[in-house]
């Protein structure tokens, strides 16, 4: 059995320091790792990245993150990544990591992702250069996720993105902005590998649960959606655990 | 001339909250009679107060009601089994 804690969109700046810490101090007693689905900071500055590392680092469990659009706001994503990495936090962008937890191998592949929309209401790689660049970016990022997911040898595989891979978890957001909240290409990448769980953030007004067309469970862990410091998900349950939970 | 409560004002407020120090993309702005009601949730009281301060400063003759909440950050009490 593996238990992973997850949250996204914590948007840390000085004013948030200490708000998550009491709940995070309890985390190692409840979960084996913490995954964070982007929008770690408010404007993506180096100072904010340091605040994030102070609040979410040094927990005694592995912390794996992807960046979000807010973390790109100051065009400092390389420096932000460096600050986080120096603090022992794993930052994924088109790559994967494997954690050995309780004798199991947990594989995590991550990308920020991008917009574009979903079946029946999506942008096409056609027309003006700006439009082709927009959809082209989506396609490149999704291809990198697929490759990262397929590269991992593990017992349980998790996809970590900031943008949403399905429209299910956007329920509650205005339909008009779905195309800026996620894209079907991420869902297709997730379905192309034996993914056990897909985690994302970004949709602050969305809803928690969905599934890809291929049947992979999707969870929107944006902090305004889950309304607690983190959620905990159990993977690779042994029969005995299942019985305990279902009685 | 007093500020008109219309869609352009809503758009201006959204862009003020997005472009400036606040960086909040999820604040809702609803017109109710002569009032503007701000909704949504943010990560700190400091951020909520800053949003109201900035809007008051830019649109001093608009009456604002702030219904913005602070997102709870307590530890969870349940585990979800994924199968
Ligand atoms: Fe966010
Ligand atoms: Fe975001």
Automatic annotation (TrEMBL), chain A:
InterPro entries: Calcineurin-like_PHP (IPR004843), Metallo-depent_PP-like (IPR029052), Metallophosphoesterase_sf (IPR051158), UCP008292 (IPR016538). One of its GO terms (cellular component) is membrane. Keywords: Hydrolase, Metal-binding. Gene3D superfamilies: 3.60.21.10. Residues 2-166 form the Calcineurin-like phosphoesterase domain. It comes from the Bacteria. GO terms for biological process: lipid A biosynthetic process. PANTHER family: PHOSPHODIESTERASE YAEI, TRANSMEMBRANE PROTEIN WITH METALLOPHOSPHOESTERASE DOMAIN-RELATED. This is Calcineurin-like phosphoesterase domain-containing protein. It comes from Paractinoplanes toevensis.
TrEMBL record, chain B:
It comes from the Bacteria. This is BON domain-containing protein. It comes from Paractinoplanes toevensis. The lineage of its organism: Bacteria, Bacillati, Actinomycetota, Actinomycetes, Micromonosporales.
């Amino acid at each position: 059995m593996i238990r992973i804690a997850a949250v996204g969109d914590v948007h840390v700046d000085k004013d948030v320091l200490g708000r998550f810490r009491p709940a995070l101090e309890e985390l190692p007693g409840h979960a084996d790792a913490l995954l964070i689905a982007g929008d770690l900071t408010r404007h993506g500055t180096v100072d904010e990245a340091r605040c994030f590392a102070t609040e979410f680092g040094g927990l005694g469990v592995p912390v794996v993150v992807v960046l979000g659009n807010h973390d790109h706001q100051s065009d400092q994503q390389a420096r932000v990544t460096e600050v986080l990495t120096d603090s022992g936090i794993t930052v994924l962008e088109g790559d994967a990591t494997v954690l050995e937890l309780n004798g199991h191998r947990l594989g995590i592949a991550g990308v920020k992702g991008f917009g574009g929309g979903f079946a029946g209401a999506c942008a096409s790689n056609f027309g003006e250069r700006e439009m082709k660049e927009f959809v082209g970016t989506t396609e490149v990022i999704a291809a990198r996720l697929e490759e990262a997911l397929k590269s991992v040898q593990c017992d349980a595989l998790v996809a970590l993105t900031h943008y949403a891979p399905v429209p299910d978890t956007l329920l509650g957001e205005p339909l008009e902005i779905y195309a800026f909240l996620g894209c079907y290409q991420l869902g297709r990448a997730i379905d192309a590998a034996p993914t056990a769980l897909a985690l994302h953030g970004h949709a602050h007004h969305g809803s928690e649960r969905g599934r890809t067309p291929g049947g992979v469970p999707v969870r929107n862990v944006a902090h305004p959606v889950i309304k607690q410091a983190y959620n905990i998900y159990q993977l690779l349950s042994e029969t005995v655990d299942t019985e305990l939970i279902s009685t | 001339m007093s500020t008109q409560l219309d869609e352009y004002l809503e758009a201006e407020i959204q862009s003020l909250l997005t472009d400036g120090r606040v960086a909040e993309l999820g604040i809702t702005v609803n017109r109710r009679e002569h009032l503007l009601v701000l909704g949504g949730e943010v990560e700190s009281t400091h951020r909520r107060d800053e949003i109201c301060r900035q809007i008051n400063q830019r649109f001093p003759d608009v009456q604002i009601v702030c219904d913005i909440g602070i997102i709870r950050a307590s530890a969870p009490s349940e585990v979800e089994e994924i199968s």
